[in-house]
Structures are given as C-alpha cells and as structure tokens.
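for the writeup, i need someone to sanity check this before i put it in the appendix. the sequnce is what the collaborator sent (i think, or maybe the updated version? ugh). structure was predicted straight from it, no edits. if anything looks off just tell me and ill rerun, i have time this weekend
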Amino acid sequence: MRTSTPKIRLLFYGFCLATVLYNCKTKDVAGVTPFTYTFKGIDNVKLPEVKATTPATVTVTAGSVQSSTVTSAVTSGLASLSSGQPSAAVQQATADVAKAIPADQATQLAAAFTPAVVASISSGGTLPANLKAQTDALAKNPALQAYMPKFTLPTVNGKPVGGRIGADGNTVVPVTANATTKTNDACQDAANASYNTAVANLTAARDAQASSVNAAHQAQLTAAQQQATSCNNDKNAYYANLLSQASSQYNEANTAISGAAIPDSDKALLKVLYLVSYVQISEQISTVKAAEIVACNAQATAVQNASTADTQAITANFNAAMAALNAARTQAINSCHNQGGGRIGAE
C-alpha cells in the first residue's frame, strides 16, 4: 500500500515548527556582573603621618640686680653724719646731686615721698606719674649715673628675656566638609558615597594623630611644669627678699640722714639720692623677676610650641587633603554629567 507523500511532509514541517518555538522560549539570566564605580583622587585618600616633635632644649642663665658700689661707699659714710663731719664719699655725693637738682627742688621732691608712697614702693607698687617722671629723669642724669643700681636680664638660649617666649604665626583652622546627599544618578551617588567615606577616613586619621601627639607632649609638659613651679617659687622668694633688703637699706639711710648734724639742704640732696636709687632698684627687681619667671617657664613653653607646631602640621595636612578631595569630587560629578551617568574608571 502506497504512503501519501503530502502527509509525511506535513508531519515533518510540524515537528520543525515545534522545535523552533521551543528554542525561542524566554530563559532566566543566570546573573549580572556587579558594576563598580571608581574615582581618581577620592578612593584610597590618605593623610600624611605626623609624629610628636622633640621639644627644643632650653638653656637658662639667671638675671641679677646689683647695687652701686659708689652708693655703698656713701652708705658706709653715713655714720659720720652724726658728728657733723661727712666722709669724703658723702661730700662727693652731695655735690653730685646738687649738679642734677637744685636744693629747693630736692626739698620738695623729698617731701612728696610720703610714708604711703614709700610703703607702696616697698610692696612693689607703682609711683604716681609725676614722681616717676622726676625720678626717671634724675636716674638718667650723668651726674648720678655712678650711684644708680644696674641689672642684668636672664637669658634663654643666649638671648636676654624681655617678654613672652612663644611661637609666632596664625592658628590653622581645620576646614569643614560639606555633607553629601542622595541623588537620582547612580554615578553621582557613588561619587558622593566615596567622598563621604574619604572624609570620614581623613577625619579619623587627623584625630588619631592629634591624640597621639597630645599624649606624648602632655607627659613632657607635666615634667616641665613641675620644674617651672619650683623655679618660680625660688625666684619669687629671692626677689621678695631682695626688695625687702633694699627697703631696709633705704629706711636706715633715710633715718641716718634725718638725724645728721648737717644743713637741711644737704639732707634733702642726700635723701633724693637714696629715693631715686631706691625707686630704680625696686623697678629693676620687678623687671628682672618678671623675666626670671618667663625663663623658668621656657622649657614648658618649648614643649607647648612643639605641641602647637605638630597640631598645626596635622591640621594643615588635613586641610590640603580636603582641598584635593573636594576638587576630585567636583571633577567626578562633572564627569558623571559628561558621560550621562556612565562608569568612571581610574586613569
């Protein structure tokens, strides 16, 4: 019996069509490769390391206040005044003061130094402006230069101390990072996220370095401050005693002059000599003592300077890193716009 060819062909075509339809079925994708944005200048940003600097070594020499040897000779001769026969040193001193101020003005000036004014000098107080101007002028008079006390300031590392010893320069203030927020752009969001991470890392590194530096310097500062406290106590006691001695010497001289068997005009001249000398030495004691205190604190100041310099260096590094980071973020955002949110790879 003969098979019909058209039927066989129809069956074959049907089979082929079923195969094609099967192969065209939608299949699930096994997986999508994750897409990672990278940003040059933002990723892996680091802060340069700053370690505690060793403070400068400080060498100090003490200051001093010296009475005039010429005045000391006059003081030794005051005992002769009770007999009305002044010593040669006293006679010369009287003549020298007369060259600087007339006797009548000397009498007025001596009277202006009341017990209250003298007591103020003894306690380290200041003179009324008019009396200070007169005594300063007399102290500078060539005729009295040999009778005035002299002083030497302490030195720190060979330089006389005349004021504060400290680090100069303006304080470096850390910059503030601007927080970033979510957008509707995956590229920009990735750039902002990387930026936020970098800021957090920089801030943590800055704070860790500052903490380490401060801890190291605090130990040094504690030791230096203990030494400074002991030094300050010694200097305060020394110069308080020196001022007390000067006060006693003035009072003894003034008493001897007041009871002398010499003309009142000569008494006034000699009293002015001791008044001017007393005012000068009390002011010099105050000046040198203040400088000594600065010198006592010099090592602690050196530690503070080192700590400040380290902190400034850390802050400056942080600011520089933040400036570069901000510029890199701006560039990254612009690149996101230019590429329509496409991938930005590290170059």
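Residues 35-45+60-151+185-337 form one domain. The mean pLDDT is 85.
thx in advance!!
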